[in-house]
Amino acid sequence: MKYRTIYQMCHTFATLMIEHGEDVLWVANMLGHTDPSMTLKMYAKYRKREEKERAIFLMDTA
């Protein structure tokens, strides 16, 4: 691996953590972001998108 700056290493760390499903709040804390919205703004595009039903509990009419 060629030389990387600290900024590039932080970016790589965040990308890999989020890409592999790590909690965004934890990643934001590790990066020193005061607000997780900054982390999401920068790295949300790396989150895996699972094809699964969401909010199924809302359909429970029992």
Automatic annotation (TrEMBL):
SUPFAM superfamilies according to UniProt: DNA breaking-rejoining enzymes
Biological source species: Hydrogenimonas cancrithermarum
Record key words, sorted: DNA recombination
Name the UniProt record assigns to this protein: Tyr recombinase domain-containing protein
Source taxon at top rank: Bacteria
Membrane spanning stretches: none
Lineage per the UniProt record: Bacteria, Pseudomonadati, Campylobacterota, Epsilonproteobacteria, Campylobacterales
Pfam families reported for this sequence: Phage_integrase
InterPro entries named in the record: DNA_brk_join_enz, Integrase-like_cat_sf, Integrase_catalytic
Tyr recombinase domain segment(s): 1-56
Gene3D superfamilies: Intergrase catalytic core
